[in-house]
Amino acid sequence: MNLAVVQVNEILKNSMLKDIPRFLNYVPEDDQKLKNLPLIRVVEINSYYSDLASNKAQTVTFNVQIDVWTSTLAQANDLYFKIDEVLQENQWACQYSELTNDVDLENCNRIIKRYETIRFK
Questions:
Q1: Which residues are within 8 A (CB) of 115 and not within 5 positions of it... i.e. 6 or more apart?
Q2: What is the DSSP letter of 54?
Q3: Secondary structure class of 104 (helix, strand, coil)
Q4: What does the pLDDT look like over 60-106, one tens digit per residue?
Q5: Domain that holds residue 101
Q6: φ/ψ (deg, to 5) at 6
Q7: Is the peptide bond before 21 cis (omega within 30 degrees of 0)?
Q8: What share of the chain is helix, strand, coil (3-state, %, to 5)?
Q9: Which whole-number Å values give the CA distances from 113 to 51, 54, 61, 79, in the listed order?
Q10: CATH no. for residue 33?
Q11: Using 50, 70 and 90 to split pLDDT, how confident is the model at 121?
Q12: Structural domain total, the chain
């Protein structure tokens, strides 16, 4: 089994979103420029074990956050549901969605999505 961020990165790099630069956990400062958008960051929020049998966990639940920065609203509109489609095809359920502006990056659009999946150990 892989870390949640590795699982999601693999899904994204083998999807229709493969050409969008992806970062795990943080985006280097040099890449935080409007000219580099869109870009994706994947961060693990938490994970926990459950469904005990004979005192051993049978499943692990992962939660990740995917942030997508875009330079235009049209670009955000295009990617907002594509991300859901790609993740849902791979058994990741969207738990939270928001479109906002990132004041730290010249008020560009920022899509915030949180996903959850349960995997058997």
A1: 8, 63, 64, 65, 66, 87, 92, 93, 94, 95
A2: T
A3: helix
A4: 999 999 999 999 999 999 999 999 999 999 999 999 999 999 999 98
A5: 4-120
A6: -70, -45
A7: no
A8: 30, 45, 25
A9: 26, 36, 17, 11
A10: 3.30.2000.10
A11: confident
A12: 1
